[in-house]
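OP here, attaching both records as promised.
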Amino acid sequence: GLHIAQFTLNSSDHSAVFPHRFPKNISERGPAMKNRYWFPVKRYGWGWGPPTTWEGWCVLASYVFILLGICFWLPPHKKPVSYPIAVTCITLVLLLVVWKTGEPPRWRWGEIDTTEDAATSQNIE
């Protein structure tokens, strides 16, 4: 195997070096891993902040990529009706995905949540 510091990393057991990333079985992940949110709520205001998982970042990157494609294929100066319709549709799809995979939105003004839901959304154990 590959030697990292004092650990020997075999291809079958990564949990020796990264125990929080590679649990030995799925039941060791706990509720924080099963119910994690892709998009946490913002600390100030209402809505969601930046993604905290790779899935959330993929959704956001896909949205930006599709928006760039819309700008190229439906330029606003040539397609003044189609462009805003396409942008509105893809934005509604993004909001639906964030609503389904994100933490339930609520108004916040900087308070630190101590509830169990807030701890699981921030992947704190």
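Record two, same layout:
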Amino acid sequence: MSKDQCEITCKLRILQHAEETGHVAKTCRYFGVGRSSFYRRRDAYAECRRKYVREEVLDQAFANLLDQLHFNEVAALKASHADERREHEQAIHRSQVEYKRSEDRLHAMYLDKLDGRIDNAFHDRMSAQWRTEQTRPLREIERMVALRNHIWAMASAFWNWREMPAGCL
């Protein structure tokens, strides 16, 4: 028995003796231990006797709880895809509205030029600036449409993969 184990056994014997006799002062006198030391040891021992849960037990309990959860994967994926699709459609619509507003502004400015309300230099300068600004929503629309097509292709490939027989994989 190692020195540490001997010391632990001695401390446990003191605690057991006090529990058997029910008299702490006599136990401390008998073993030559101060009462403050005895109470500190007793509290530490009580702390150590608390039940701890091993990580493996926690993992197993968590896995059991997860097994109890049931949800329809296909429905969840379709709902997620529907949300993404709606967001993409809204983004495309916003860009189309912005493009149309810019187009209407250019048309109104052209009419003002024809009516003589603005001069040619102002028209040329502003139309060049607005046409440059107009390319941003147009590029955004193209990007979102390409992304939407890519998402559709990925979703289609996923659904086709899920429906394949097990031996084909």
